[in-house]
Amino acid sequence: MNRFFTENNWRFIDQSLSMLTRSPLESFAMDDTLCHVTGHGESSPVIRTWVHNESVVLGIQDHRLPHIEEGMQLLRDAGYEPIVRNSGGLAVVLDPGVLNISLVFKEKEPTSIDTAFGYMVDFVKALFPQLAEKIEAYEIVGSYCPGTYDLSINGKKFAGISQRRMQKGIAVQIYLCIEGNGGKRAELIRDFYEVGLQGKETKFTYPTVVPSVMASMQELTGTSITVAEVNMRIQRLLLEWDAKTSLLSLQDSELTLYAHYLERIFKRNASLLKR
Known about the structure:
Layout: H1 3-6, E1 11-15, H2 24-39, E2 46-50, E3 55-58, H3 68-77, E4 81-84, E5 92-94, E6 98-106, H4 113-127, E7 135-137, E8 151-153, E9 156-166, E10 169-177, H5 182-197, H6 217-221, H7 227-240, H8 252-273
Parallel strand pairs: 1-2, 3-4
Antiparallel strand pairs: 2-6, 3-5, 6-10, 7-8, 8-9, 9-10
Helix pairs in contact: 2-8, 3-5
């Protein structure tokens, strides 16, 4: 296993249940807070798990769609709340069948973007050792939020990775489609872009989503694997590494920082949605 994991003492924050009914904006504020405290050496590296009810997290480019209001209304009509995140990338679906994982750590020495992404790829392969040789990292054309570090098995994407850097901290975030139908999630985003574009040409090229190239881990493995089970695998993995793991929630000083970042993110999201 990558020495990055075995040589660090990890702080594990499980918000797979406590964040369910809260806005994903709160998770982004949480990762900004953890970036700050790890970057300043005030916290050990963090592994955080988080799950939210039906939401679609939009990127800045998504918000520039010519018919974005109609696109967002389509999402709301389907039972998904749209928000705009504070980092790059494009639209992704969150729901109780999607497990999100954040690795947050201090950049002690120059760490390339590819190296940081590689940590998450290694981590996912460690979570699914029986599938490690089948998991590939490359862009899946036709997926939503396509990128170089899409994770797939046999050409079907089940995860996407993003990265945020601030205050000398690095947060690498992944969404893992564990349960349900990956193609159905992709259909929602396909329809969002169709309504948001309505055939108009734009300077930015939005993805042409092909639902058949996306799947969940349940579909790919033919098992009934659950978000809760994968969350437990993370805790067992930390034990296998003999890592000194702490289960600390936010401390008082961190809560003050969190309130600051949360207010900033909510204000930014509100200003974007007013367009």
